[in-house]
């Protein structure tokens, strides 16, 4: 970290320490409308659906306990600038009242165009599908989902059509046939290079923060760059609360704490921390996760080696979040955010010999440090600008002690992303708005290999500077929504320009039908590759690299989709076709474990797919069935005689069937997940008694058995004095089925061995949470 970034972080910490001294209780007679809505939801057993921008800066008194729900809604409509629409007995949609363009300046925009919601309660409460095809998640409103004990952001995304993790890892989310590094994951506007704890089994982002998440699979906004697959944009609260909110939680993996402290009427400090409890107890949940995470690693190999004693195994993880909000004036806002994520594994190896005992330590550390400062200015009722300076430092390092060969291998992969973003938005009228901006990014990536026996050291560092300018036009009427824009990227090192047009068009017809068409061109210069499957103790095998326009070119993609949606009352039926062509991928990024494992070639993959969903809501019952089908093939000039063959993540069919039920304070969810097996390559039979190399069949010409999993979750909410509490249990893989996630072959003493990576077996979890 250079001097400038260190100084910025020091100022950031000092600012927090200064303002925390002046923390005070600010209970007022009036409460934020959002808090009042939460009270009413529990009182009347209803669900309010709204965009955060609709209710911000609105304060009202809590309605009297004696009045009915209809009287409450009438009162709220009179006291706010909102419309309340009751869709059924339990779902109430809140929208801004239509206004003419105001003529005088006031605090922030009184009219702000929002993505029109196509359906509320998509799969469960707190999830909505927008008319531009994107999906919104609000974790504080989120209902229960099968197998999940908490609202894990990335696990929830896996429930959507077109999204799958072929190895049950949220560090390997495949959206419409893409690899995980092709997804853009933003935390309060800052790109993340690490997304999982426990090496991919749970999300690295505290699930109880009040996220407002937008997932775009196609037709994403022109403000998003550096991804050729999906965009997962996680926004954190930026409004000052009127009272302190504190939560404590515990499950069979970790414990967490979070609080929101208003320091004054215009400032707030948000804090959250989570840490594994593996230092104190090894629960059944931890034991299952441990088996799954380390089953194909150096650690598991040593545990199965009778000549080496493995002891003092230690694994832990934590994440720490903080955010400071300052409403400088009615039209100016300052925000500072900080996030630290870390996973650490260590163990000792002991070898007893005739000359004495030899003991060495192996360890792996994966950490991410992110910080950013954002300034927002409301120039006019309809014109707003924002500027963000951010810095991310990602570090993956390991020491692999090979005690049998008296060798130590040190490996390190470091990413430093330093950038600036400036956005400007202008609302011309209620139908037309514009977005424009500029982004500067300086990414430096280094890779280190250091061996002591024999001595060898390789250190490579690359730096890439890029500039991006973008613009977007939004047009919305009762029947039409159009978003058209483009992003222009310039890469200094290569003196190369790339233009990325984007378009989303939604047309409503016959009252209950919508036609959605999207198209986009994208590119990315940062990706992940695998040098050796044994790298980083065989656990985190992927390392980040920069494009060099030779061995690793800039990846580009073209994607288009066409879908029809039928929405009537509480029934949604949707079908969407899509095509996706991705060019200039490196074979080293695909994780081949067959005849192409050590081949370096540049190629493409092409996806043709279809996503279908039927979602039916009743008063307290919600059920859905989704089906996804795609064909995903590689084309490499030097592989397989230039003939196409199945992609490593070519899972042809995926079915999700689930339901959840709410009765008073009890929530229950059940779900079934099934998909066809992923492809693999078998070795050909050999008549030789001695095999020196494996002769493989046609690449990915065989398939694993189908994957099937049944999950269940139960949650109960109750009171402990004046505090709200919740307890829950979940079971992942109730059927305890042994699913094979991956299989490959290696050669040991001239004998071909088949190695199988298997799924999580039956994995229970339990949680308890209290908030006040």
Task: Note the topology.
Blueprint: H1 3-20, E1 31-32, H2 33-44, E2 47-49, H3 52-55, E3 59-60, H4 69-79, E4 82-86, E5 91-96, E6 117-119, E7 127-130, E8 135-138, H5 153-157, E9 163-164, E10 174-175, E11 184-187, E12 190-191, E13 196-197, E14 202-203, E15 212-216, E16 231-235, E17 245-251, E18 254-262, E19 267-276, H6 284-294, H7 298-303, E20 309-329, E21 332-353, E22 356-380, E23 383-402, E24 407-427, E25 432-452, E26 455-476, E27 480-491, E28 496-509, E29 513-524, E30 526-529, E31 543-546, E32 555-568, E33 571-586, E34 602-617, E35 621-636, E36 645-646, E37 653-663, E38 666-675, E39 679-680, E40 702-703, E41 707-720, E42 723-732, E43 740-748, E44 751-758, E45 763-771
Parallel strand pairs: 2-5, 11-16
Antiparallel strand pairs: 1-3, 4-5, 6-7, 7-8, 8-15, 9-10, 11-12, 13-14, 15-16, 17-18, 17-45, 18-19, 19-20, 20-21, 21-22, 22-23, 23-24, 24-25, 25-26, 26-27, 27-28, 28-29, 29-32, 30-31, 32-33, 33-34, 34-35, 35-36, 35-37, 37-38, 38-41, 39-40, 41-42, 42-45, 43-44
Descriptive key words:
single chain, 772 residues, mainly beta, Phage tail protein beta-alpha-beta fold, Maltoporin, Chain A, 2 domains, 22-stranded antiparallel beta barrel, 7-stranded mixed beta sheet, 45 strands, 54% strand
